[in-house]
Amino acid sequence: MKSFSQRFIIPLTFGLCMAGPVLSQDVEELEALFWARKDSALTRFSQADADFMTGMIAHHAQALIMSAFAETNGASPVIQTLAARIINAQNDEIQIMQEWLEKRDQPVPHIMIEDNQLMIHGVDHHHDMHMPGMLSSEQLQELEEAKNSEFDRLFLEYMIMHHEGAVHMVHELFNTDGAITGESTYRLASDIQVDQITEIDRMKLMLEELENLN
Amino acid sequence: MNIRTLLCTVLIVAGIIAPKLGLAQQSMVFDDPRVGLQSGLFDAEEAIWNLNKLTTVPPPKDFVGAINSDLAFKDHYVFQGNYNGVQIWDVSDPASPVIAREYLCPASQSDVSVYENLLFVSGEGLGGRLDCGTQGVDERISEDRLRGIRIFDISDVLNPEYIHNVQTCRGSHTHSLLKDPEDDENIYVYVAGSAPVRPAEELPGCSGMSPTDDPETALFRIEVIKVPLSNPSEAAIVNSPRIFEGLTAAPVHGPTDAEKIEFEEARARGDFVVSIGARNYILPPGYVAPMVTDYFEQQEITDPTVADTNAFREALPGMISAMMGLDVIEGRGPDQCHDITLYPEIGLAGGACEGYGLLLDITNPINPIRIDAVADSNFAYWHSATFSNDGSKILFTDEWGGGRGAKCRDSDPMEWGANAYFSIDENNKMHFESYYKLPVPQTKTENCVAHNGSLIPVPGRDIFVQSWYQGGISITDWTDPANVMEIAYHDRGPVSDEELEMGGSWSVYWYNGYIYNSEIARGLDVFELIPSEFLTENEIAAANTVQMEYLNAQKQPTYRWPPSFVLARAYVDQFERKGTMSSDEIASLRAEIDEAEQQGNEEIISRIQDLASASD
What we know:
The complex is a heterodimer. Chain A is built from 7 helices and 2 strands; from the N terminus they run H-H-H-H-E-E-H-H-H. Chain A is mainly α. Chain B is an alpha+beta fold. Helix content of chain B is 18%, strand content 31%. In chain B, the strands form 8 sheets. In chain B, strands 1-28-27-26-25 form a 5-stranded antiparallel beta sheet, with no helix packed on it. In chain B, a hairpin with a 2-residue loop joins strand 29 and strand 30 (514-519). The interface between A and B is large, with 99 and 94 residues.
């Protein structure tokens, strides 16, 4: 984690190096205030917030593994698009949550994915992987082995369950005293909720239509 | 393992999947002054094209470091929302805005609207307080919390008086005002909330259950607040219409030209191409084969005949259509809208509602009725809508990643986090035309995605000025919605090149000749257009003849141009650009206008307006 002075000096150094506008004394003060407030906002969080981030990183990581099967398992084009979007979105969110923890001097879970096995390093207590919506290793293997339209069906079924678990985790957080008092925490948690609810709706429709065929 | 190594690992995993996308007409531009700008908070390097920046004013101290959000305008005042409250700028001289009043009253997102002597402010976050205190609210259930709409009396703009609240179950992420042309006694506020529903212990009657379990659930509805203008403190929710219910068969857009070529090539290769509604889909052979097997198994056909095969072919579009999941089943659909743009003069509203873009009939303001819905598999999150001035077109934005994410990197598809354009036919059905996304890549420390904007009233054309967060501002011409073209921009380097700090343009709107930009971290920017090959001096001057007493971009006004000689000249410039007249004809029209102006004869203005309407 960077100290306040490091944060403060870097932009000023650029200011001197480039042919940009010269900072007046007032603006320098405002800039110092800006970074000081960003730093003090970092203290506004609860253990529940940190636990949420830690858990959600692992939760998202499993979605990456599930989505990676789409390419190899003969998924339909629309499922491949869906999977690619999930990978893009959740990869970015993992990074945001890791930075969230790092900036608050909290242990940061690091993800290793090898042979579709998820390993988490960097957190003392191994977070329990039985979070809502997480696939068991048997279910993950079942998905890995499914092909073509069977894969599509199973992917939707498991990803809906997985997303519903994430939404449940957000609701739990909202229902915790002292949680999500920080602005960035609020924004991240509510964005995860909105994005995943939207995707759940879309996936439920895809699944119902798929099942109507059979 | 440090963060960087970790990211590499994750990205490699992600790299296994190459996104399968439809062809976009637009491609990313790498050779652009906006690429590689130096970072900085108040001293970031800037790139600007066909715009002149008059000034940037930083936020007052109490607002520094808190997010600047939406803008509203009244007379010579700009109301700038901020997560810490509202900043009121006096822009009598647009080149030097002066802070006229700081009103500290924290709540996210502090979306602002004004109507006559009233100011409305949205509160959604958990820390908003009824007493405007800055200490937040820590308890899960608290009687101090405000989530909903704050109402201020701004009869004296410099001394807003906080007169009333309307608390809502999901809070107010954004809101829009509706003035019914038939009703001068009330103003209506449409509230859109996207956060989890608050507990009934905090606000009685709130329920987040599904409609089948609880018909009074806060899900699947928006809230309409009626504000009596003679007594705004009696403002209350009058209806919670379920505009999402029974969404049926959301139509899908037709192919782009590039896609048509792709389909022809696929047919030539012998790939399966199925047409569903207005859209074609290419099916890889490996995908169809198991479907054939499944189909015959279901039909208990062991030895298929030609007739059986043909029956399969006929059934295939229906099967694929079902698998695409784009036909919406009765009773299903999104459960909230992000933003609703109301255009009362044409009786329509555009709702950007989770997975759908909706067209609503708002001729009865208390009971909006959905008349059309579009879904798009490239759209993650329908965020906001803007109509063309004549109401014949609508654009929706996709706030993929919620505005937090860096979604304009060179690896992000051009169809994701973009605008989608639709024409609206005489039966009020929407037809897809194209996508547009900020054409230059941004760094991974710049949050970037399509966001708010407004029309610039250039007569005879549809010009849109739009925020792309740290992607800056992009001004586009969407007169032809199938070929959207950028005509001006402004961009800054990232707030930080080390980590993603929220910044950039939240909202940018044209108001009475100037372009005001609410910069999340840096304050308020003011721009003016400068002439270019895409926009002449006369067109800019004609736009500037449109003067408004107030503006809330989500309550879209109809622009009307008072008759003026510069308006006539602007049209002649457009005839010249379109090449519909010879240079002799152009020269003689210009001479005629000069002469008419000297004689004070305005007849020529309407004649040229008629010529312009005829050429459309």
